[in-house]
Amino acid sequence: MLLSASQRRGFDGANAIRRHMARTGCTLGGHRLWTEVELSTLRRLFPGDPHLHDLLPGRTTCAIRHKARQLGLVPPLRIWSEAEAQKLRRPYAKGEPMAALLEMFPGKTKRQIWSKANRIGIVRPRPAPKPTGFALLDQVRLRAHQLGLTMRDLDSYTGGRGYFCAPRRHDLRLVGRAVAVMGGRIHVRWTTTDGSMDRRRG
Asked: Highest taxon of the source (predicted)?
């Protein structure tokens, strides 16, 4: 078969590139070619060995994953079906643990599940605020959570300047403001002489 002039130039160019790579060990862009030793190491240790980067000096995480994908070491990304997206809605919105979701969707990663939920607008319930060790403050933070308020909301409504987001002390003034904002009142209990509790409203 006779080749046209443009085809001959293409073959000549490809041969020139191969000769360059064989001579220099690099691509035309200056990237170092993978050696057989490196490829063998990658096939043997990817993805679980924590020392893989040490055994492949000069290879970035991105480069390692790209080469692993070329070698078929990374499972292909599965496209979400409409049925899977619908199946995800209820358990994700109910706050099912991620481990349970991974079992429900074999082959999916945590990142894939988070990304899909975000794209279709599913919101996981916010976890209850962690205890601070200040009983009254903890009750206020928990009540805000039950009302759908964030700690940023409380800071905004009370002028807390980050107090409710990261409390380091008991500030009764701000706590009182938050209680009032949420429509509550603080009750004080005094211990009487006989040891019983006498409640007075404050």
From this structure: Bacteria
